Amino acid sequence: MGITEVLSAPHSPWQRAYVERLIGSIRRECLDHVIVINHAHLRRILRSYIPTTIGAGPISGWTDKDALDGRPVCPPFRRIVVTPEVGGLHHRYERRAA
After folding, report:
1. CA–CA separation, 49 vs 25, rounded Å?
2. What are the residue ranges of helices labelled H in 1-98?
3. Nearby residues of 49 by Cβ (< 8 Å), 6 or more positions away
4. Residue range 11-24, pLDDT digits in tens
5. pLDDT per position as a tens digit, 69-90
6. What's the total number of domains in the chain?
7. Does residue 14 sit in helix, strand or coil?
């Protein structure tokens, strides 16, 4: 596959920008609001958080500023339905037919 290992210097987060951004987002948006009981609980929290983060918003460079799940464009005059995710920490908003 042509994957090579790239070593970064210790205590230098600017060399691991993407990973540091992901870890910071997980900490700020998810783990700062939950008391983690054990390893299994942490894994359950992260399993429910990661898919909502990856498929939720646009990613500029990869998909021409479109969401990964390819949501269709909806007419503006529809009812908005709220779906709680990650145990109610985050919410997904969708337009549904009235």
Report:
1. 11
2. 17-29, 39-56, 60-63
3. 26, 29, 30, 86, 89, 90
4. 887 888 878 888 88
5. 566 666 666 778 888 887 777 7
6. 1
7. helix
Closest CA to 41 of 93, 87, 89: 87
Domain ranges, residue 61: 14-96
Contact 98, 78 (CB under 8 A): yes
In a domain, 28, yes or no: yes
Is residue 92 included in any domain, yes or no? yes
Give domain status of residue 3, yes or no: no
- Among 24-28, 60-64, 68-72, the least confident range: 60-64
Assess if residue 4 is contained within a domain: no
Backbone angles phi, psi at 81, to 5 degrees: -110, 135
Determine the residue type at 85. Answer: E
